């Protein structure tokens, strides 16, 4: 059985935990790299919010549009021209003409 409060407890940070994370980050990256790291983190969060708001706007626009009627494919029309009718051969077909090189050797 799963606990319904588990996701909430997962993100329940206190002051001590936040301070510990900040000290660890300061040790790993140093004081000189910290502003650059924060700037990069801010840019990535901004891009993420921009992408999610764009997707959200697209969903809202799609929900506001009236549904399009289903179009049944037509057998003939401007996009589907009629197919040419096959022509039945009349009598025997003639063989293709011989190549000129065949006549040089005396063959017909």
In short:
By secondary structure, this protein is mostly helical.
SSE diagram, text form:
Elements: H1 6-10, H2 15-64, H3 100-104
Q: How would you sum up this structure, described in words?
A:
The protein is 56% helix and 0% strand. The chain has 108 residues and is an all-alpha fold. The radius of gyration is 38 Å and the shape is elongated. It is built from 3 helices and no strands. The chain has a domain at 33-66.
How many individual β-strands? Answer: 0
Beta-strand content estimate: under 5%
Low-confidence stretches: none
Number of helices: 3
Helix content: 55-70%
> What is the radius of gyration computed over CA atoms, rounded to a whole number of angstroms?
38 Å
Morphology: elongated
Please describe the structure with a list of short key phrases separated by commas or semicolons.
single chain; 108 residues; mainly alpha
């Amino acid at each position: 059985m799963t606990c319904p409060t588990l996701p909430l407890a997962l993100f329940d940070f206190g002051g001590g935990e936040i301070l510990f994370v900040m000290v660890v980050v300061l040790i790993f990256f140093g004081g000189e790299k910290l502003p650059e790291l924060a700037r990069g983190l801010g840019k990535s969060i901004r891009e993420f919010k921009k992408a999610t708001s764009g997707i959200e706007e697209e969903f809202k626009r799609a929900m506001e549009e009236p549904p399009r009627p289903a179009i049944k494919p037509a057998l003939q029309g401007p996009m589907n021209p009629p197919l040419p009718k096959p022509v039945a051969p009349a009598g025997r077909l003639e063989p293709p003409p011989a190549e000129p090189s065949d006549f040089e050797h005396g063959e017909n």
